[in-house]
Amino acid sequence: MRDAKPCHYHAALQEAPSMAVTVAAIPSYQRPVYSCEDASMSVSGSAEKRLLQDEVARLESQLVAAYAKLKSTDSLVQPTTLQSSPVHSVPSHPSHGLLLLSDSALPLGSFAFSSGLESYLAHHPACKLPPIKPFLSLALQTLATTSLPYLLTAYRNPSQLQDLDDTLDACILCRVAKRASAAQGRALLTLWERAFRATVDAGLESVKALATISMEMKKLPSATSPGAAGFEMPVVGHFAPIWAVVTRALGITIRDSAYVYMLNHAKAVLSAAVRASVVGPYQAQEVLGSGWLREEIEVLMQANWYVAIDDAGQGVPAMDLWVGRHEMLYSRIFNS
Known about the structure:
Number of helices: 16
Helix content: 55-70%
Largest sheet: none
């Protein structure tokens, strides 16, 4: 009975007699069972694979044709066509504005001031060429204790820009430093209106704050103009708070804003040192690229990061004396 063949095997052997011996030689319990469903699935899978391969080949040929058409179109485009084509908005990158504001050629007027260096040299006649690092450290410390708290507060609360400007104007006791801060702040605000304002969203809180203070500065007389004042406090436009709101409007982070603000001051001092023949240009770049300067800025930022404007003050009182006596020098090459 083991060798008895089922009926469906008889039918298969009749249709394929050449396979009869092979099938008969295999015991029934070892014979694989094939169904029509398995065969149909195999056939359909092969057909589907061929269809997918044909589809891939067709898409590849279309892609090659599209590349060739694009290349021929680019060669036919004229400059006038490029100018008349619509301009698509490109997502802004914060580092772009950061690089612009860190440029030494930025027209802010800092090139004309020595930040007290010229007066410092005049008051140290015994040492013709004093080392630049001690003075640079004092200059950065002065900036961090007097202006950095206002910068950080203005960045965090741009709607308070005008109030912060008024408070800073009242707290700067040295009139030479006050004039320098006001001149650079107004220059930055002018630069914002003429170059940067059109590139950002007008609905931002920082943009609205800059528009408000600009309008007030145009309405009210300047703090340094004769007959200015009356009973209404003039808007001066000091550098630190305006810098903070401009950098926030450009999408620059608060940390980068504060760091570049400090670094730009270091670059201005070293630039003045080069023109005053204290250091050479390569030595100035060596100081700028040194780890000492980076650590100095980081430490000062860390120490004054959470200082409120009520606690801000001159950390180096002698700096006010050097800056204030600059306009009393017999001869000078920098503005007061």
